[in-house]
Amino acid sequence: MMIQSRLVRNLLWGAATVALLWVVYGYRTGIRILPAESAQLATGLTLVDASGDPVELEAMAGRIVVVNLWASWCGYCRMEIPSLREIHDELGHQGVVVLGVNVEEGGSEELEARVRDMGIGYPVARPSAPLSGAFAGSRALPHTWIVDRQGRVRASHSGFASGRSLKKAVGKLLRED
After folding, report:
1. Nearest residue to 66 (alpha-carbon basis) of 162, 143, 150
2. How many CB atoms lie within 10 A of CB 29?
3. pTM of the model
4. Would you tell me which CATH number, out of the four given (1.20.58.100, 3.30.420.40, 3.30.1330.10, 3.40.30.10), belongs to the domain 32-176?
């Protein structure tokens, strides 16, 4: 009888621990969408692609843009890439753009090699000036911003973002229009 009650107690503690970890994981990897009225305009992101051509968010007006700051040496950044690629592939026809922003030193050949080796299937650029405006202050990698169709930064998330939370946040903005 004592062994049975100890087993039940341990099972309950184990279930409670798993539930707590599930809640904490969901909170840490979830993305919160800000109300449109309090969102900043998406300014302060000056980018160039691997060829050195400018990449401008203004050219993506009318679309939802998922901006993901990353580096190839960042494990969590690498973990996000398949989810970002999936969003790009599945939601691109609905006006969603994924834009990777690589922060590593090196020339265009190194950037192109990283993109190819990691199987990134969405546009990648790098900053040509320090991040400022709505994009300033990010020191953690990865960092993800979601810009709505009106050019406002509706989400800013430091650290790993699960694919589920990314899709949920983008889906919420897709339903707004």
Report:
1. 143
2. 18
3. 0.82
4. 3.40.30.10
* Token couple for 166: 């990314």
Closest-CA residue to 42 (of 21, 59, 25): 59
Secondary structure (DSSP) of 100-135:
EEE---S-HHHHHHHHHHHT--S-EEEESS---GGG
Residue 110, number of CB atoms within 10 A of its CB: 14
- Per residue in 70-79, pLDDT tens? 999 999 999 9
**Alpha-carbon span 54 to 15, nearest angstrom:** 52
Of 16, 19, 35, residue with least CA distance to 27:
19
Phi, psi of 121 (to 5 degrees): -110, 20
Which tokens sit at 56?
A: 């401008």
